[in-house]
Amino acid sequence: MTDIVKSDAIPDKIPASRALHTNLLKGCMLVCVSLTIALVGFLILYILIRAIPNFSWEILTTKPSYLKGTIGVLPDILNTIYLVATAIVIVLPLGVGAAIYLTEYAKSPKLVKVIEYAVETLAGIPSIIYGLVGMLFFCQFLGLQTSLLAGSLTLVIMSIPVIIRTTQESLKTVPNGYREGAFGLGSARWHMIRTVVLPCCIDGIVTGCILAAGRMLGESAALLFTAGFAHALHGYIDGITSSGATLTVALYVYAKEQGEFEVAFVIAAILLILCFITNYLAQAFGRHMQKVK
């Protein structure tokens, strides 16, 4: 038995050239990881160091007043939350539904390839073009004017390729045996998708939601044409139908147009905090769905 295990085909030692090659690859990967962590850490620390001295309760809870000479970003924070929440509520069912159709229902491979090519093309279009199309279609043709609703619908078109592709790839990772087992137990297709397939790929859906929300939070070019520059303080119903500046648009205005770099760094720090909160909530939702599964 011992002679069978110790075969001549398995060398006792790794050749020196192969070991050197492996160590070089490990070293390169370690350098790449270290540089990435260092760059991200430097970016976060630099923004926080420039922003913390200018943080105040007043700037976070008031709106700008040119008569009093005060600057507040509360309208910009609320506008960002209104816009991202509205866009996510619209794009998530559309993107997930399209991915489910392409993966589970579509029977024509040619149709699937055409749709996938169109989705990939949409993902590569510059955001300024989305803003121009959104201004012409949503603001003028549909009569929504310059408003957060027009900006949200523009972001929906921009983000739907991300949701579709991530969800589609996650659906493909679910073993076909799960589907066949559900069909063997007499489950209908939609019941099988809802109770077996979707819980298994919830991580991919959450990842797509995080990527889409991150792009929405960082978008400014498209919103310059569709959402506007107003700093008025509104509730959700009035705010979504009115013109409003998001945090990214406000950052551009304060830094580029007015030269208020202190306020710009405060807004940058708020955007970082919103990104962390969005990622945490999405991951918490994914963990909850895993427990439910």
From TrEMBL:
<comment type="similarity">
    <text>Belongs to the binding-protein-dependent transport system permease family. CysTW subfamily.</text>
</comment>
<dbReference type="GO" id="GO:0005315">
    <property type="term" value="F:phosphate transmembrane transporter activity"/>
</dbReference>
<feature type="domain" description="ABC transmembrane type-1">
    <location>
        <begin position="77"/>
        <end position="282"/>
    </location>
</feature>
<dbReference type="GO" id="GO:0005886">
    <property type="term" value="C:plasma membrane"/>
</dbReference>
<feature type="transmembrane region" description="Helical">
    <location>
        <begin position="144"/>
        <end position="164"/>
    </location>
</feature>
<feature type="transmembrane region" description="Helical">
    <location>
        <begin position="28"/>
        <end position="49"/>
    </location>
</feature>
<dbReference type="Pfam" id="PF00528">
    <property type="entry name" value="BPD_transp_1"/>
</dbReference>
<dbReference type="InterPro" id="IPR035906">
    <property type="entry name" value="MetI-like_sf"/>
</dbReference>
<feature type="transmembrane region" description="Helical">
    <location>
        <begin position="114"/>
        <end position="138"/>
    </location>
</feature>
<keyword id="KW-1003">Cell membrane</keyword>
<feature type="transmembrane region" description="Helical">
    <location>
        <begin position="81"/>
        <end position="102"/>
    </location>
</feature>
<keyword id="KW-0812">Transmembrane</keyword>
<dbReference type="GO" id="GO:0035435">
    <property type="term" value="P:phosphate ion transmembrane transport"/>
</dbReference>
<feature type="transmembrane region" description="Helical">
    <location>
        <begin position="263"/>
        <end position="282"/>
    </location>
</feature>
<protein>
    <recommendedName>
        <fullName>Phosphate transport system permease protein PstA</fullName>
    </recommendedName>
</protein>
<dbReference type="InterPro" id="IPR000515">
    <property type="entry name" value="MetI-like"/>
</dbReference>
<dbReference type="InterPro" id="IPR005672">
    <property type="entry name" value="Phosphate_PstA"/>
</dbReference>
<keyword id="KW-0813">Transport</keyword>
<keyword id="KW-0472">Membrane</keyword>
<feature type="transmembrane region" description="Helical">
    <location>
        <begin position="196"/>
        <end position="217"/>
    </location>
</feature>
<keyword id="KW-1133">Transmembrane helix</keyword>
